[in-house]
Amino acid sequence: MASTIKSLTSFLFLISSSFLLHSSFHVTKAQAQSYPPLVEGLSWDFYDNSCPKLESIIRKQLKKVFKQNIGLAAGLLRLHFHDCFVRGCDGSVLLAGSASGPSEQDAPPNLTLRLEAFQTIDDLRRRVHKRCGRVVSCSDVTALAARDAVYLSGGPNYSVPLGRRDGLNFATRNETLSFLPPPTSNTSALITSLAKLNLDAYDLVALSGGHTIGIGHCGSFRNRLYPTQDPVMDKTFAKNLYGTCPTSNSNDTTVLDIRSPNRFDNKYYVDLMNRQGLFTSDQDLYTDRRTKGVVTSFAIDQQLFFERFAYSMVKMGQLSVLTGNQGEIRANCSIRNVDLFLSSVVEDGEKGLSQF
Ligand code: HEM
């Protein structure tokens, strides 16, 4: 009798533990982040052998950097976006202008990128190359820095596919302008603009959530204040903006997310529902019937926003990437290797000449 009870108990135990295992498997699967398919040449473990400490070098350094200046997190996130939308994520935005002409950096949307963000990318590159040699590209460093900017500000800790190579050319001013939509765009214009990059309306709403951190200049939302106030804007919010930008040519800055300006969360969408979005391109996402529901769902459910943001970032991070033997691994993020080499030859030559 005793042995029958014992075997019945162990049978029940087996059943219940297999049920538990089964249900926890489902919970884990539901919670697991889903990612878009990887493009050929990129992989999750690209530097596992050649630079296994890559991600920890970057994260450790950025933790220190953000302690000094949390605004840089926004600067780094925006830098990756501006890199990817123009000529793909190939570090072209990092290239300084040359004698042959102005660079992408000189095009209007890029003039408000933060100088310290460029400097931070090259500083990270230097630390990584010191440890591993010249094996990691500036475009991969930029993608990882953007992810850490998100995570260290309170956002999701998503994985970044790696293996990008750096481009040899930058885009012209007109090319840059044609891929980076202005903040005066309405949702229709944004949907059309992102469609050129195979990004859809869902990506648009998720990626716009990047505006949960950082700042904007008066010039970027002047159209909502002058010559007349945008009627969609919350009245008190508008009044405060007139305080920041008292004339139509003021050039001060204000935060993009009034509820939690330095925290990566879903409050940006709550702002939009309260008609407190800063740019036309933000606020119209809640006016347009095609995107309003997605804004609401992200405002209600931060976890859903985090998952969709990570998904769309990985999608954006794979736009027209160079892989394999294409492009190069720059030894200095703002200069092509050939120019770097030529300038060092000239410098050496000058040093040599000055000895005579
Ligand atoms: C959808 C179209 C987008 C438009 C029209 C747009 C436009 C802008 C503008 C005008 C600014 C402020 C520039 C200034 O006045 O200083 C800005 C800032 C910013 N944007 Fe966007 N953006 C868009 C998408 C994105 C995406 C996809 C991301 C990243 C996922 C992003 C991240 C940021 C961040 C973090 C800042 C703050 C930068 C800082 O504080 O230095 N934006 N954006």
UniProtKB/TrEMBL annotation:
What chemistry does it catalyse, as a reaction equation? 2 a phenolic donor + H2O2 = 2 a phenolic radical donor + 2 H2O
Recorded hits in InterPro entries, A to Z, give:
Haem_peroxidase, Haem_peroxidase_sf, Peroxidase_pln, Peroxidases_AS, Peroxidases_heam-ligand_BS, Secretory_peroxidase
The EC code for this enzyme is 1.11.1.7
- TM segment ranges: none
Q: By its UniProt entry, which PROSITE patterns does this protein fall under? A: PEROXIDASE_1 (PS00435), PEROXIDASE_2 (PS00436), PEROXIDASE_4 (PS50873)
Q: Which residues form the active site?
A: H82
Per its record, what are the GO molecular function terms? Answer: heme binding; lactoperoxidase activity; metal ion binding
**Cofactor details (free text):** Binds 1 heme b (iron(II)-protoporphyrin IX) group per subunit. Binds 2 calcium ions per subunit.
Q: For this UniProt entry, which residues form the secretion signal? A: 1-32
Residues where heme b binds: H211
Mention any Pfam family matching this sequence.
peroxidase
What coarse category fits the chief subcellular location reported for this protein?
Answer: secreted
Compartment list: Secreted
Instruction: Cite the binding residues for Ca(2+) 1.
Output: D83, V86, G88, D90, S92, E104
Family annotation (SUPFAM superfamilies): Heme-dependent peroxidases
* Residues that, per the record, bind Ca(2+) 2: T212, D257, D265
Cofactor field: heme b; Ca(2+)
Give any Gene Ontology cellular component.
extracellular region
Q: Where is this site: Transition state stabilizer?
A: R78
* Chain positions recorded as substrate binding sites: P181
Asked if the Swiss-Prot or TrEMBL record annotates the protein with the keyword Cell inner membrane, the reply is no
Q: Give the similarity note.
A: Belongs to the peroxidase family. Classical plant (class III) peroxidase subfamily.
Q: What does this protein do?
A: Removal of H(2)O(2), oxidation of toxic reductants, biosynthesis and degradation of lignin, suberization, auxin catabolism, response to environmental stresses such as wounding, pathogen attack and oxidative stress. These functions might be dependent on each isozyme/isoform in each plant tissue.
Annotated protein name in UniProt: Peroxidase
Q: In which organism is this protein found? A: Cinchona calisaya
